[in-house]
Each structure stands twice: as structure tokens, then as C-alpha cells.
């Protein structure tokens, strides 16, 4: 059954990998020890070949048992008969190959005629004569058993150590993941977006922690902006709604009590109500535009920005604004509706403060400038002009919601550009909008590129 826990799977993976390495090393070590021990036995047998050769001639040609010898040796004759010195060793077909001259001895494990396991080395001593010398293997087998027990114990201890190491590694590796899990659970339960995870190091887990912190910061900022928008909207809506309610109450009270209102006063009340409705409509439209910009992620397309500016200028002229233009073609990637609304807001803002000299609009190299000939702004107010609901003290008596330039900043940021407002030399203010783009439409640029390649 597959473990459900990532920590358990990681522990098993580390334990299995280390255990496999330990067991493999133990097995290889056992074979190396076996090879070394047998090599020592073979060497000792070869060192005693001189004694065997000395006794070799004591074997009678017709005999099968030679003189007494403390070791174990058997002489192989060309006719296939043998003569044993000490305990007899049963020859094999491989041993008989040594009757012919061979450059190297023949090594093998075998048994004596009474069943004892021995190490056998067969050597050609002279043409047609070979000697099988042997040593018992009981001490070798005992050494190998001890080695197997020792290496097995090491393998068991290594496996246990691997399990502990795997558990330690998994805990250390997954500690940031646990912190991330607890942070997510905490946010889900408390909706506290100020929760942050400590970032340690520069590995993948650290990058994940940094990304999580960036995400929660962005969410916290978005929620704070939403709360601020709702609070500011409530504050801004309170004044026109109160005025509307007061005026409507006056009209209703006049009808209920039968006391007529002077026609001029009634007309002023109705004009005031209409103006308040217009202000409310503008405010609600601006709020919807800001809210839509915070959540709308429509794909951007190529836009002929000079045509957008031309359309916005025509709308401004219909409202009575005097606008002078100097436009060059410029193509950007963005949302045409949002960009047109941004340009209209700049034109409305400039026309509101401009004198009879009108508004000057210029578009060159992706930079749109809208200049008015009004009084300008105090330097200390310039950093606040793009804040939501901020209005200059000198403009609070003029119509507007304080959201126009905030909408401009939002639309320009969505298109990857920048916008600023500064006092113009010689008086007035100039708004500058920089948008990345090209002078040639993208499709035309592609066609010209293909033609140039052919």
C-alpha cells in the first residue's frame, strides 16, 4: 500500500536508497574477503609445492599410496592412475588437463575421498605428470562466516541508520512545506492575509515561500484597496444622496401640506436634483470602471492609439472643449475602450481648468501630452493627483468625483505604460502618457519583413 504522507514516502525513498547501497557494499565486501582469503590459501599451497615435488619420486609406478605427507597431494600419471600423498583427492576432468604443459596452475574447490572440503591447486611438474596439492577449507569457511555475520550486522545497523537519516532529512526538507500548510490553514480559518513564512536559503522551497509571501501581499493589497474603495465610495456617495433626499423631501412636503413653492425656487430645486443625479451617475460609472479594472483580465489586442486619441478628442469637442491636436501614428497593445476612457478623462480634466486658449494634444513617438492653460497645481499636490477620490482644494467646487485621474493611471498601467502630471513652463499643467508600441501596425511590419526576406 502506497503511503499517503509525503514525509513517509520521502523517508522510505531515502531509507531504501541508503539501505541498498549499504547491502551492496556488504555483499561486495564479502566477495572481496573471500577472494583475498582464497588467494592466501592458494599462495600457501604453491609455497609447499617444493615438498610435494621432493616426495613425488617416492610414489611407486604401480602404487596408489605414496609415503606419509602431512598435507594433501595427489599425483596424476599419464595413464590416468593416481598416487596419493596424505589424504587422497579425487581428480576431475579439469585437473587432468594439467598433464599437458600449461602456463598457469588450475585452482578450484573440491573434496577429499572422505568428504572433507578442500582448496585444490593443480600444477604440471613435468611432461605427463601433474600434482594436485590441497589445503582444508574449514578455516576459510569459518572466516567467511564471521565476515558474513559482521557485514550482515553492519547492513542492519546501516539500514536502521538510513531510516533515521531518512526521517531526519524528510523532516528538515518538509519543514518549510509544513509552515506553508499551517499558514494556508491559518489564512483559511482567520482570513488573515498578513501571515508570512520565513524564507531560508535560495532553494526551491525558499522560492516557494517567497512566492507565497508575494501572493499573500498582493491579496492583502487588493483587499485593502477594495476596502478603501468601498469606504471612499460610501463617503463620496453620502453628500449627493443627502442633498437629493433633502430636495425631494422639500418637494414632497410641499405636496403633502398644500403649501406651494415659488416657481423659481422649485425650478432651482429640480435643477439641483438633476445635477445631483448627474454627479451620482458619473460617480457610479467611475466606481464601476475602477472595480472592473481591478478584476477584468480581458486579452489585449493591437490598438491604433492615434485613432483612439482622435475619437476621444471628437467627444471632448462635442462637450464644448477647444482642442488642438498634433498626432502621429502609434500602435500599442491594450484595451481600446480603457485607453479611450483614459484620454477622455485627461481631456476633461484639462478642459475643466483651461482658459479660453483651449487644450493642446500631441502624440509623438508613443508619448501623449495633454496641456491646459489653467492655473496649474501647487508642487506639494502633484504626488497625489492620481490617488482615488483625491481632489485639489481649489477644485472641490467644480464637478467631478476625484476618480478620473485614478482611472487614467489604472488604464495606462494595464497597457504597460506610465503617466505623470506636472506644471508646464509658462503656466498651466501638462499630463504625459508614455505607452510602449510601434509606428507601424504589427501585421504590416510582418508583411514588410517577409518581403525583405524574399
UniProtKB/TrEMBL annotation:
PROSITE patterns: HAMP (PS50885), HIS_KIN (PS50109)
Enzyme type, top EC level: transferase
Residue stretches making up the Histidine kinase domain: 232-439
Example of a GO cellular component annotation carried by this entry: plasma membrane
Record field: transmembrane: 12-33, 146-167
Biased composition (Basic and acidic residues): 441-454
Subcellular location field: Cell membrane
One Gene Ontology molecular-function label: phosphorelay sensor kinase activity
Domain called HAMP: residue spans: 171-224
Classification lineage: Bacteria, Bacillati, Actinomycetota, Actinomycetes, Streptosporangiales
Pfam families documented for this protein: HAMP, HATPase_c, HisKA
Name of this protein: histidine kinase
PANTHER family: SENSOR HISTIDINE KINASE TRCS, SENSOR HISTIDINE KINASE YKOH
Catalytic activity line of the entry: ATP + protein L-histidine = ADP + protein N-phospho-L-histidine
Superkingdom of the organism of origin: Bacteria
Amino acid at each position: 500500500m502506497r503511503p499517503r504522507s509525503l514525509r513517509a514516502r520521502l523517508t522510505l525513498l531515502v531509507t531504501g536508497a541508503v539501505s541498498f547501497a549499504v547491502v551492496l557494499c556488504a555483499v561486495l565486501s564479502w566477495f572481496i574477503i573471500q577472494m583475498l582469503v582464497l588467494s592466501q590459501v592458494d599462495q600457501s599451497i604453491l609455497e609447499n609445492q617444493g615438498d610435494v615435488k621432493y616426495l613425488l619420486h617416492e610414489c611407486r609406478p604401480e602404487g596408489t599410496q605414496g609415503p606419509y605427507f602431512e598435507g594433501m597431494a595427489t599425483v596424476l600419471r599419464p595413464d590416468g592412475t593416481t598416487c596419493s600423498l596424505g589424504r587422497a583427492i579425487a581428480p576431475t576432468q579439469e585437473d587432468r588437463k594439467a598433464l599437458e604443459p600449461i602456463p598457469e596452475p588450475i585452482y578450484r574447490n573440491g573434496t577429499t575421498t572422505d568428504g572433507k572440503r578442500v582448496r585444490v591447486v593443480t600444477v604440471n611438474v613435468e611432461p605427463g605428470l601433474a600434482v594436485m596439492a590441497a589445503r582444508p577449507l574449514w578455516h576459510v569457511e569459518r572466516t567467511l562466516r564471521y565476515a558474513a555475520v559482521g557485514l550482515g550486522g553492519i547492513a542492519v545497523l546501516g539500514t536502521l541508520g538510513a531510516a533515521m537519516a531518512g526521517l531526519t532529512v524528510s523532516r528538515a526538507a518538509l519543514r518549510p512545506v509544513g509552515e506553508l500548510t499551517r499558514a494556508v490553514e491559518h489564512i483559511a480559518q482567520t482570513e488573515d492575509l498578513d501571515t508570512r513564512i520565513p524564507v531560508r536559503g535560495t532553494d526551491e522551497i525558499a522560492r516557494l515561500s517567497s512566492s507565497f509571501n508575494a501572493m499573500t501581499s498582493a491579496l492583502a493589497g487588493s483587499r485593502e484597496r477594495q476596502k478603501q474603495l468601498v469606504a471612499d465610495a460610501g463617503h463620496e456617495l453620502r453628500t449627493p444622496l443627502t442633498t437629493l433626499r433633502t430636495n425631494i423631501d422639500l418637494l414632497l412636503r410641499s405636496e403633502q401640506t398644500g403649501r406651494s413653492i415659488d416657481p423659481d425656487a422649485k425650478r432651482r430645486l429640480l435643477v439641483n436634483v438633476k445635477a445631483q443625479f448627474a454627479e451620482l451617475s458619473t460617480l457610479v460609472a467611475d466606481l464601476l470602471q475602477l472595480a472592473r479594472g481591478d478584476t477584468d483580465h480581458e486579452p489585449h489586442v493591437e490598438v491604433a492609439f492615434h485613432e483612439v486619441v482622435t475619437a476621444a478628442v471628437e467627444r471632448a469637442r462635442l462637450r464644448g472643449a477647444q482642442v488642438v491636436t498634433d498626432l502621429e501614428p502609434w500602435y500599442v497593445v491594450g484595451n481600446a475602450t480603457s485607453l479611450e476612457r483614459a484620454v477622455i478623462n485627461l481631456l476633461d480634466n484639462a478642459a475643466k481648468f483651461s482658459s479660453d486658449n483651449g487644450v493642446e494634444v500631441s502624440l509623438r513617438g508613443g508619448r501623449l501630452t495633454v496641456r491646459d492653460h489653467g492655473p496649474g497645481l501647487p508642487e506639494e499636490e502633484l504626488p497625489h493627483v492620481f490617488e482615488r477620490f483625491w481632489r485639489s482644494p481649489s477644485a472641490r467646487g467644480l464637478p467631478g468625483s476625484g476618480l478620473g485621474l485614478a482611472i487614467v493611471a489604472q488604464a495606462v498601467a494595464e497597457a504597460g505604460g506610465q503617466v505623470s502630471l506636472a506644471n508646464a513652463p509658462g503656466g498651466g499643467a501638462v499630463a504625459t502618457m508614455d505607452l510602449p508600441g510601434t509606428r507601424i501596425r504589427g501585421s504590416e511590419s510582418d508583411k514588410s519583413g517577409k518581403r525583405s526576406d524574399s
